[in-house]
Amino acid sequence: MSARASYPQLDEDAQAAVDRVVANMQRPHCKRLLFITGAGISADSGLPTYRGTGGLYEETDTDEGVSIEDALSGAMLRSNPALCWKYIAQIEAGCRGASPNRGHEVIAHLADRYEVWVLTQNVDGLHRAAGSSKIIDIHGDVHTLQCTSCLYQVVVDDYAEVTIPPHCPKCEALVRPDVVLFGEMLPSEKLKDLSRELENGFDMVFSVETTSVFQYIAAPVWIAKQSAIPTVEINPGTTEVSQIVDERITHGAALSLGAIWERLEHP
Ligand SMILES: [Zn+2]
Question: Which one of 104, 109, 127, 139 is the catalytic residue?
Fold first, then answer.
């Protein structure tokens, strides 16, 4: 039986792409991998796809008549915390009970063989739940809550025990999630981590089910391309980086990464 029989769900082009990707991963000097992940990888865990921090919503306006971008903005958190928190809580509710899928698991397992960094737009914490440790969650994580006034911070499994909007047990100021709301700057520490690791260089860069609309999400792919570092896109659809990557696997993250793992295990 051929090794390819272990992932027959992929079409022939994708199977051939997986073989080439794995051959690249098996080069002796291939040690550092970057996985850039977006909403699609979490969709395989049953999560709604997000657009930025929001994007749970088909309609553009909330019940309150403001756009979801305005409701989930830093300005709204300050002016009307209850309204902002209502929609933050909906994001958490969308994540609640979700487990990492095969895509998250394979990225976590690969850390046994490679130095693996994850740059994710997702705020659901599923990479951490799967066991990845080198994570740059550039938009934050809804499960980390912090006081807007003092240094109080807490990590929660979910918001079941959280009174919305929450207040600090130490100083009673408003508590917020450690996520980037609309109109807010990206966290400078995480941007520093990202540029440091990009300077250290990667041996392969994977863009996994992200739309790559944000410059800082697409840039590592462009940088790799300019340096002749192999680039891979895993995405059933086309994105801004589809035209420049070396390999495209046009299936979902769980299936595609599962196939890569099978091929690595059964060369
Ligand atoms: Zn406080």
Answer: 139
Q: How far apart are CA 170 and CA 102, in angstroms?
A: 40
CA-CA distance, 219 to 148, in Å (whole number)? 31
CB 21 within 8 A of CB 105: no
The predicted model scores a pTM of 0.91
Residues 261 and 160 reside in one and the same domain: no
Identify whether residues 131 and 14 lie together within a single domain.
yes
Classify each residue of 4-16 as buried b or exposed e, where b means 16 or more C-beta atoms within 10 Å of its C-beta. Answer: beebeebeeebbe
Cα–Cα distance, 49 to 40 (Å, whole number): 7
**Active-site residue, 139 included:** yes
Q: How far does the centroid of ligand 1 lie from the alpha carbon of residue 153, in Å?
A: 8
Apex 115 CA angle, 244 and 53, nearest 5: 60
Domain range for 207 is 3-47+99-139+185-265
pLDDT tens digits, one per residue of 79-134 = 999 999 999 998 899 888 899 999 999 999 999 999 999 999 999 999 999 999 99
Q: How far is Cα 15 from Cα 201, in angstroms, rounded to an integer?
A: 28
